[in-house]
Design brief:
The protein has helices at about 15-25, 35-45, 60-70, 90-100, 110-135, 140; strands spanning about 5-10, 30-35, 50-55, 80-85, 100-105. The protein is of the alpha/beta class and about 140 residues long. Strand 3, helix 3 and strand 4 form a beta-alpha-beta unit.
């Protein structure tokens, strides 16, 4: 099967990485990272369409990684999904405030997880098409968009 997008999965737990690899590696161009610092380096080089980001990691936590990704010009439009065992509403809101596009609580259902990944990738593609169309569109027509 041909890869449908580039995904960076970030989690310090090898068991969680193994689960993500099982779900994603045959469907997407997948890279993995076990910490925030490494994730930032890989993201700058790999330019993923989506980042699946754990929150609780040694060193830089997922919230800070998310904020730093949003500050990087080449990664501002990357879809970021927080994938965490932290299920409290306040923790999810903190993820959204840091710049996350979505939030998945562990443990998760594999089919639902894959659907969320596909929905967010499709949304990213639609946003890119819209941005390109706006650039190509003359100013007198743009005001109606």
């Amino acid at each position: 099967m041909q890869a449908q997008g580039k995904i960076l999965a970030v989690d310090d737990d090898p068991n969680n990485i193994a689960i993500l690899e099982e779900l994603l590696e045959n469907r997407f161009d997948l890279r993995v990272s076990s910490n925030g610092e490494q994730a930032l380096e890989i993201a700058r080089e790999f330019r993923p369409d989506m980042i699946l980001l754990d929150i609780m990691m040694p060193g830089i936590d997922g919230y800070e990684v998310c904020r730093r990704l949003r500050e990087h010009d080449g990664l501002k439009d990357t879809k970021i999904i927080m994938v965490s065992a932290r299920a409290m509403n306040s923790e999810q809101l903190e993820g959204y405030h840091a710049g996350a596009d979505d939030y998945i609580t562990k443990p998760f259902d594999g089919d639902e997880f894959l659907e969320k990944v596909h929905v967010n990738l499709n949304l990213k593609n639609a946003e890119e098409v819209h941005r390109i169309e706006r650039v190509k569109c003359p100013d007198d027509i743009r005001r109606f968009m």
